[in-house]
Amino acid sequence: MSVKFKPNNNWILLPNPAKRKTDSGIILDDATVNELKTNVLDVLAVGPNCTFVNVGDTVMVDPRGEGVVVEIDDVPHVLVMEHQVFGVMESE
User: pLDDT (tens digit, 9 = 90+) per residue, 5-32?
Assistant: First the structure.
């Protein structure tokens, strides 16, 4: 997925892991949203000062961590700083 956004500094753009509605249209309550959040996400964009993470990497972040939720083209995304990434998943 390509986005028209370039983060500043060492910020990383990720898809929003908190889905409020299922694919079949069921609206989820806050507790369920938090339970279903994943902490393994694909990197959509990186800032110019990121040294460890690249676009397309699959990273693990703290699911309890707070990112900045932003909307780009009416789609919610999350911005986190590079130091909030636990690591990059290695491909098999």
Answer: 999 999 999 998 766 676 787 776 767 6
